[in-house]
Q: What sequence folds into this?
């Protein structure tokens, strides 16, 4: 095979100069062996920079960024909680990082024990004893879950089932996962209180229903008030209830989805169980199922035989959904978080997450319109900027841009789609009252600015390194440089 390398365009770097180096390597003390010619290049246009240039470059970049270690990150639906640093310490231990996926599992009993105990803890927390740790994210957990529903119905010869019911308050990945599994997605409307409309659900559920995908609490931050009835309606037609448990932060230690009637659930360990996420980083979307569905779980799962831990393949496994064993170091972080918190303190997470959200809602709802403000929210809530559009021509995007000038990360905006000009706010339990107040004060000040000087919002942000980008163009034609 001949590899023809395109000659790269000469690159001009703003930093560095020929001959500058950032590292001094020791004399080579082994015989030099030339690399195969087809793997090498004449020129490698890398910047030539001193160590100090590199350090300053990355420090400067990090200071232009915003992160959860700097302040509130109220990105609704993302549960951007503070992640204790001890999780990182544990995930850095050589015994974990030096493991190789092809290693004989018998050489890694500690890793297997950790996975087994994590399976057990999650199963207990969710009231669903069958657990796989394989999926790499919530959305992959959903796909896994729907494939389990598929395998269950097939095992019963019920191949006529082809539609998945998805409420309009579901997370966007729910209809996407159903569609990716080859099923027809049928939307179920919400009622005036933000719950699933029961009459509509009864009308739509029938012998062709695979199941319902229920995000609970839903994307409006509301707990489904008729959860048992909703599950009953689906069970009565032979369907299964898939719970999107990514919002478990509102329930953890207080309510167990399995006890509420959910049959299959995924949990975003990278949200509820303090695994860092964002920027597409590795996550973990464990899937939990009721006991009789455990036979369909992806392989391998970890089992305990006597005092030994081993991998096993469930009897009617849907197969593998990810290479090897999932994002193992994400599992280590979730395990450490849970062990340090302890069973007795778990409910505090949900209690504080819910109190914090309700406190913020109470501070904001007289200024920003809260479409479901008469209900207690769970861990997050939605506001609509529609009155600002009508009165001042200011949009939710302008409000989100302006909040950056106050030093905060904006909330999620324009999601869920059912709320026009939506702002979706999730403070999480790891914010103090002072930081909630600072954030609320900023949003209230912005509301006053909208009335007094709307242009200041429309031109915002005024302090960020970049202001309003054309998102598509910025991704396709990035301008990477200090001076451009
Ligand atoms: C309710 C809900 N479901 C599903 C997902 C998808 O999870 P992931 O981004 O890990 O794929 C999210 C993401 O935050 C979510 O908030």
A:
């Amino acid at each position: 095979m001949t590899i023809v390398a395109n000659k790269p365009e000469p690159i001009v770097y703003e930093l560095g100069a020929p001959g500058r180096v950032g590292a001094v390597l020791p004399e080579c003390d082994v015989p030099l062996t030339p690399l195969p010619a087809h793997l090498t290049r004449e020129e490698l246009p890398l910047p030539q920079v001193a160590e100090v240039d590199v350090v300053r470059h990355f420090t400067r970049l990090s200071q232009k960024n915003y992160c959860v270690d700097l302040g509130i990150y109220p990105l609704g639906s993302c549960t951007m909680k503070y992640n204790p640093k001890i999780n990182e310490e544990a995930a850095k231990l050589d015994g974990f990082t030096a493991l190789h996926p092809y290693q004989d599992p018998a050489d890694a009993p500690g890793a297997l024990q950790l996975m087994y105990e994590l399976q057990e803890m999650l199963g207990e927390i969710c009231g669903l004893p069958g657990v796989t740790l394989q999926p790499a994210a919530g959305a992959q957990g959903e796909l896994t879950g729907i494939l389990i529903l598929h395998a269950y119905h097939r095992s019963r010869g019920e191949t006529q089932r082809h539609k998945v019911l998805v409420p309009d308050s579901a997370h966007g990945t729910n209809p996407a996962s159903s569609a990716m599994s080859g099923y027809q997605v049928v939307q179920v409307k919400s009622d005036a209180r933000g719950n699933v409309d029961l009459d509509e659900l009864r009308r739509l559920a029938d012998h062709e229903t695979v199941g319902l995908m229920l995000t609970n609490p839903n994307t409006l931050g509301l707990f489904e008030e008729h959860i048992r009835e909703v599950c009953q309606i689906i069970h009565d037609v032979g369907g299964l209830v898939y719970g999107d448990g990514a919002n478990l932060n509102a329930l953890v230690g207080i309510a167990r989805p399995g006890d509420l009637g959910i049959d299959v659930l995924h949990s975003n360990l990278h949200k509820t169980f303090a695994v860092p996420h964002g920027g597409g980083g590795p996550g973990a979307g464990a899937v939990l199922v009721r006991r009789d569905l455990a036979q369909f779980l992806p392989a391998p799962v970890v089992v305990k035989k006597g005092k030994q831990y081993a991998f096993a393949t469930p009897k009617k496994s849907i197969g593998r959904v990810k290479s090897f064993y999932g994002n193992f170091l994400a599992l280590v972080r979730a395990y450490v978080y849970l062990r340090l918190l302890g069973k007795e303190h778990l409910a505090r997470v949900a209690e504080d997450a819910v109190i914090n959200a309700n406190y913020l809602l109470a501070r904001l709802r007289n200024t920003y319109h809260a479409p479901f403000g008469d209900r207690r929210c769970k861990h997050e809530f939605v506001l609509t900027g529609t009155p600002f559009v009508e009165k001042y021509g200011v949009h939710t995007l302008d409000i989100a841009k302006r909040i950056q000038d106050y030093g905060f990360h904006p909330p999620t905006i324009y999601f869920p789609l059912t709320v026009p000009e939506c702002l979706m706010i999730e403070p999480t339990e790891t914010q103090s009252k002072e930081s909630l107040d600072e954030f609320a004060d900023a949003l209230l000040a912005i509301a006053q600015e909208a009335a007094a000087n709307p242009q200041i919002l429309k031109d915002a942000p005024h302090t960020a390194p970049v202001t309003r980008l054309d998102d598509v163009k910025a991704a396709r034609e990035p301008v990477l440089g200090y001076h451009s």
